[in-house]
Amino acid sequence: MRTRLRQLRIDARTFVWSARIRHMSGSGDCHRCIRLRVWGAGKTSRALQADLLSVTWGSPWGACATDTAYPTSADVRAVIDYALLHGWQPEEQGGTFVLSEQEHAVDFALPEFLLTDRLRTPESADPTTRVIRADEARSIT
In the chain, how many domains are there? Predict the structure, then answer.
C-alpha cells in the first residue's frame, strides 16, 4: 500500500505529512484513530507523531462503522504549531517526537479529536470513556 504524502506550507517551511486510519477497541465500542506523522526537514529529519482519537459518538450502528473523521489542514497546522512550541525540532536528524496523551492531552485537543496513547500502549485510558466525556462536554456548550 502506498502512503499518500501531503504538503503544508507554514511561513518559509514546507511540512510533509501523512495520516493513516486505524481502529482501536474500547470498553463500549470500536473507535477511529488517525496516526498523523509530519516531517519538517526531509525524510531523515525528526518526525512528529500524534495519534488522534475521533470524538464521534452516538451512532446506532457503532462508531467504527460510521465514523468518517479525518484531520483537515487546519488540524495538522494546529498539531505542528503546538509541537513546535513544546520542543519538536524538525531539523534534527532521526527519531520521533511524540505528542502523547499522558504529557500533552491536558493542554491540547482539536474540535474533532483527542490525543491518545492507546495505539502505542494498550493499557492507556479507555477510548470509549474519553469519547463519551468529550461528547457530553460538547453538548453542554
Answer: 1
Please spell the DSSP secondary structure of the chain, one letter per residue.
Answer: -PPPPEEEEETTEEEEEEEEEEEEE-SSSEEEEEEEEEESS-TTBPEEEEEEEE-----TT-HHHH------HHHHHHHHHHHHHTT--TTSBSSEEEE-HHHHTTT--BTTEEE--TTT-TTS--HHHHHHHHHHHHHH-
Predicted structure pTM score? 0.88
Q: Cell 500502549, residue?
A: 121
Q: What range defines the domain where residue 34 resides? A: 5-139
| pLDDT tens over the chain, length 141 residues | 456 899 999 988 999 999 999 988 888 778 889 999 999 988 889 999 999 999 887 665 555 666 788 999 999 999 999 999 999 999 999 999 999 999 999 999 899 999 999 988 888 888 888 887 887 777 776
